[in-house]
């Protein structure tokens, strides 16, 4: 079922799924199979030639994973999606078809700490590089783009601070330069924000977080809007010219708006092997079915807790964009009208020492490196997720030593506030 005229609540349960043709099983089975029998030699040849779509080998495609791909693509308003083993894998899978040695990507300073490290260090080994820019300033983004820039990358609602990116302003800049905008929509989810409607070319996810929603499996996804014209200039030869890694196929000619998705499967997954397994797809499919219900509660709890923290004397400031005091508050209505998600930071009076005491004193909140769980989570970013960053990078990312990051869960909000209250008392004693 892919009829996008249905409402979000219907699509999050049904998109991509149909009763199992062999057994009638109503829930999508976990197709725990590595390979698929070809009807005959001609069928096999057609599949390998990409003349017919079907299943060959689960490094490339798997029926359970395919349902999740169609579901996330539908929820994001894209034409196709490729799932992979983690959010970090999704970022490499998004860049792989459009980058080459010597090319660069212009990225926001406000990103998940692991992404800052991936972009500032690891991608250099592929001959790629990243330029970090303050995305609150679209002119600075435009100024950073040069002849070798092949993409612009940001998070819709940024981890850890919950800052909102003005995607319309940024996509105007990437459009003018003739390059794609890649938006990490992990923190907002397609229920709160639909980056493609604001001009994104590709949307990446760590499905590990809210899409699965209960901290059980890692996974990632790249969604293609199908709207980018890869042939408009000569910057994207893997898509617009004969691709030597697939016996000279011109993906943009053969697959039209599905070029990026087919490239991701036929070459990205085939050669990089960052495949999502069907068990993970199953857990994430179950998560997507309740996404809107969970996000509404995550947002309601986060709003109450952010307001309570902001009014508390033991707290210096709270970064939640849903607060009237936030410099990003005016972007909520435009970018994420159903709420600013449930991830934000707050600064504790007493600095590093008080943060460590706070984290150790909480009873309901868990001290973990994750977000988007049913459970409320807290982490001291400067000593963990953002530890590899310089002091300057930590400040730019909103993860200074006096700051803790919370991911507000689905528990009773009064219990969460009471827990923060007792732990703040111990931290400031
Ligand atoms: C967690 C996270 C990632 C990385 O995802 P993994 O599934 O852990 O590889 C990327 N971006 C954001 C915003 C994240 O929160």
Automatic annotation (TrEMBL):
PANTHER family (alphabetical): HOMOCYSTEINE/CYSTEINE SYNTHASE, HOMOCYSTEINE_CYSTEINE SYNTHASE
Descriptive protein name: Methionine gamma-lyase
Record bears the keyword Lyase: yes
This enzyme's EC code(s): 4.4.1.11
GO cellular component term of the entry, any: cytoplasm
Family according to the record: Belongs to the trans-sulfuration enzymes family.
Higher taxonomy: Bacteria, Pseudomonadati, Pseudomonadota, Alphaproteobacteria, Rhodobacterales
Organism of provenance: Nereida ignava
Keywords per UniProt: Lyase, Pyridoxal phosphate, Transferase
GO biological process: cysteine biosynthetic process from serine; L-homocysteine biosynthetic process; transsulfuration
Top EC category: lyase
Sites bearing N6-(pyridoxal phosphate)lysine, chain numbering: 209
